[in-house]
Structure formats: structure tokens, C-alpha cells
């Protein structure tokens, strides 16, 4: 496998991780929504039970008053009348997405209103002392029929909500299972592909890189050894140059000393030449010297002239 084949594979891993993340997020949102619907169903069931209990409380207060004619027993009845409107309003808002349940609730509300009117009639008959009419109304079981109808309707609505609850819980569980499967599956696949890509990279890419790095390190060591050798040679050359400089300085000193000695010799030669010249002059004054002496004087004169000429030449060179 080549490097240009690894890049798409690595990109595929990132795409897979992105898809896994998107599915997980979708599952999470849907799971939250499903949980909210489950909680909504529980709330509706609780409100239906509260509705039935409120009507029972109203009927209990009415019976207590009818039996005892004590107004304190009317407190549950009066409180129930206040709570019923609130309960029906809340239920209407909670089940407005379900037309079938909404229709049943309207029927329950209508029967509940009839039940409250029947309770109000019995209370008014008791308060006015019309016992026989009250007895006839109670024996007619009109109130019981209303309550039986309300209980049946509420039971039907609770049954519908229970079915909805079961379905919504099932959906929530399925979503949860799907999200778990996708999450773990995507993670495992990503890990496997990641390990495979790491192995490919280590074998195809890192192997040559490590070999190149080893070769570079070896070359660096050789270069370092060469540099060290060059430094040693340069150090030896510097030492040799130092010694040569010292020798040159000594030679310069010797040359200077030789020059001084040569100059002293020249001065001595000049002095000799001057002395010979004077002797020659004195010799010429002696007329009685023999020819041999004359010849000797002549030769001496020539030597003096040569020495004088050389002295003159040296002075000229020194003056330049």
C-alpha cells in the first residue's frame, strides 16, 4: 500500500467519526424527545386520575352535608368546583395533539358539569328543607350514573395513554439501543481503522524515515570526525606558523645584526681607503723612492681608488 492510498483511508476514518457523531447526536435528541413524550403521558394519566379524585371529593362533600347539614362538609365540594376548571384547561392543552382524546375529554367535561349541577341541586334541596324531593333525586341514581359514565370515559382515556406510553417507551428503548450500537460500533471500527493506519504508517512511512535518520546520524558522526581532524590539522599548522614566525623573527634579528656588522666593515674599509690615500700622497712627495716602491705605490693607489669607489657606491645605496 502506498502513501497516496493511506490518505483517503484516513479521511474515511474522519468521515466515519463524523457520521457516528451525527447519528449519536440525532439519537440523543430523539431519545430526549421520546423521554419527554413518556413524561407527558405520565402527566396526562396523573391529571385524569386527579380529575376523577376531584369529582369524588365533590361528591363526598355533598353527601356529608346532605347527611349532617353541616356546612363544613361543603369545603371539599367548593374546592373541587374551583379545581375542575384548572384541571380541564391543563388536560386540554396536554392532549390537543390527539383529536380522539380531545373528543373524549369534551364528553367528560360535559358529564362532569352535569354532575356538579346535580350535586348543587341536592345541596339546595337540603338547604331549603325539601327532604322528599332530595330523597327522590338521590334514589333516582342520576348522580351515580354521571359518575359511572365519567369513570368509564376516564378509564378509556387512561387506557389510550397507557398504550401510548408503552409505544413511546418502546421507541425510546429502541432509540437508546440503536444509539448504543452505533456509538460502540463506530468507535470499534474507528479504533480498528486507526490501528491499521498506524501500523501502515509505521511500516511504510516511518521505516524509511528511521533509516534515513540513521544514515544522517552516521554521516553526522563522520562529518564530526572529519571536522575534529581538520581542527587538529589547523592546530598543528597554527603551531607550525607560530614556530616559523619565531624563526623569522630570529632570522630578522640575525640579518639586522649582520647588516650592522657589514656597515661597520664598510666604515673600516673607508677608513683604510682614506689612510691609503694619505699614504699615497705622502709617497708621491718622496721622490727618492725606487721604481719598485713607485710601482707598489701605484698598485696601492689603484686599490685605494677601488675601495673608495666601492665605498662611494655603498653610500649611494644606503642613501637611497
Mean pLDDT: 78
Number of helices: 6
Question: Which secondary-structure class do the elements indicate?
Answer: mainly alpha
Largest sheet: none
Low-pLDDT parts are none
Cα(first) to Cα(last) distance is 88 Å
Would you list the SSEs in sequence order as H and E?
HHHHHH
Helical content band = over 70%
What radius of gyration results from the CA coordinates? Answer: 67 Å
The 3D shape can be described as rod-shaped
Number of DSSP strand runs? 0
State the domain count: 2
Beta-strand percentage range: under 5%
Helix and strand arrangement:
Elements: H1 3-68, H2 75-94, H3 99-128, H4 131-139, H5 142-285, H6 291-319
Helix pairs in contact: 1-2, 1-3, 1-5, 2-3, 3-4, 3-5, 5-6
Task: Pick out its properties.
single chain, 320 residues, mainly alpha, 2 domains, 93% helix, rod-shaped
Structural overview:
- With 320 residues, this protein is mainly alpha-helical.
- It has 2 domains: 208 residues; 58 residues.
- Helices cover 93% and strands 0% of the residues.
- It is built from 6 helices and no strands.
- Helix 1 runs antiparallel to helix 2 and helix 5 packs antiparallel against helix 6.
- The longest helix has 144 residues.
Amino acid at each position: 500500500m502506498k502513501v497516496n492510498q493511506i490518505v483517503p483511508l484516513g479521511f474515511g476514518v474522519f468521515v466515519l467519526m463524523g457520521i457516528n457523531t451525527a447519528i449519536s447526536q440525532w439519537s440523543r435528541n430523539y431519545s430526549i424527545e421520546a423521554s419527554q413524550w413518556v413524561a407527558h403521558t405520565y402527566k396526562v394519566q396523573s391529571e385524569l386520575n386527579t380529575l376523577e379524585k376531584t369529582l369524588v371529593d365533590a361528591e363526598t362533600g355533598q353527601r356529608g352535608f346532605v347527611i349532617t347539614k353541616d356546612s363544613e362538609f361543603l369545603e371539599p365540594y367548593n374546592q373541587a368546583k374551583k379545581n375542575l376548571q384548572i384541571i380541564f384547561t391543563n388536560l386540554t392543552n396536554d392532549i390537543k395533539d390527539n383529536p380522539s382524546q380531545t373528543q373524549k375529554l369534551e364528553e367528560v367535561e360535559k358529564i362532569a358539569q352535569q354532575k356538579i349541577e346535580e350535586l348543587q341541586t341536592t345541596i339546595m334541596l337540603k338547604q331549603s328543607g325539601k327532604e322528599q324531593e332530595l330523597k327522590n333525586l338521590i334514589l333516582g341514581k342520576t348522580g351515580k350514573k354521571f359518575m359511572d359514565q365519567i369513570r368509564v370515559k376516564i378509564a378509556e382515556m387512561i387506557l389510550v395513554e397507557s398504550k401510548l406510553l408503552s409505544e413511546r417507551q418502546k421507541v425510546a428503548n429502541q432509540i437508546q439501543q440503536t444509539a448504543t450500537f452505533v456509538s460502540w460500533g463506530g468507535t470499534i471500527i474507528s479504533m480498528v481503522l486507526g490501528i491499521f493506519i498506524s501500523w501502515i504508517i509505521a511500516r511504510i512511512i516511518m521505516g524509511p524515515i528511521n533509516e534515513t535518520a540513521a544514515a544522517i546520524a552516521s554521516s553526522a558522526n563522520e562529518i564530526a570526525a572529519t571536522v575534529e581532524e581538520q581542527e587538529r590539522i589547523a592546530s598543528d599548522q597554527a603551531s607550525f606558523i607560530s614556530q616559523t614566525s619565531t624563526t623569522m623573527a630570529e632570522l630578522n634579528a640575525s640579518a639586522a645584526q649582520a647588516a650592522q656588522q657589514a656597515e661597520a666593515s664598510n666604515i673600516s674599509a673607508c677608513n683604510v681607503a682614506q689612510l691609503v690615500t694619505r699614504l699615497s700622497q705622502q709617497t708621491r712627495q718622496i721622490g727618492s723612492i725606487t721604481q719598485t716602491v713607485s710601482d707598489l705605490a701605484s698598485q696601492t693607489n689603484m686599490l685605494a681608488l677601488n675601495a673608495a669607489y666601492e665605498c662611494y657606491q655603498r653610500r649611494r645605496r644606503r642613501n637611497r
